[in-house]
Amino acid sequence: MRINAYLARATAISRRKADVLIAAGRVKIDGKVATIGATVENGKSEVELDNHKISLPTSHTTIMLNKPAGYVVSRRGQGSKTIFVLLPSNLRQLKPIGRLDKDSSGLLLLTDDGQLIQTLSHPKNVKLKAYDVSLDRPLSEKDANAINAGIKLEDGLSHLKLLNISQKRTRLNLTMSEGRNRQIRRTFAQLGYVVTKLHRYEFAGYKLNDLKTGSWRRLEDR
Is 209 helix (H, G, I), strand (E, B) or coil? Predict the structure, then answer.
């Protein structure tokens, strides 16, 4: 196993971050400073990070949180409430997979499984996400068709699939497989709409179902 993959699985950091630590000389294999691309054998190689021995966990903890609006996905709230106050102390070391902005709510996964983070975060892996959306005014048929066709943003084309538009055309569902920063809000803003509510209810096959706002559960319990 490559050393960066080992570090990712053992500490839940990304492989890119692991490479940074390796390049900085903070990782050792069998007492020697590791190099990028080096390999280790689980159970036989001794790996150290900052002179502390690390090993692969025998099991992982992954939870689903129904994030309320108004909470930030960060350990430092900088004046805002952080999602980690919603969790018991023994789960606050878990790392979020992806993000939801402060004003958005819904499904968020947190884990100490570095491989799961890598799998669900890597752009090459298509991950369907589904949202409930509310708008400040009715969505025209023309604009709905434009969004389904793709809206050009400053960081590329935005691909959203609109579903179940309400009779008043101010509420709808949508799905997407991308995940750029505030992409949904920016897509509607490009056409002059304000997203007043954004709630994610599905991510990569995981669904909130009846999980209450502010509550969490282990994925094994879903």
Answer: coil
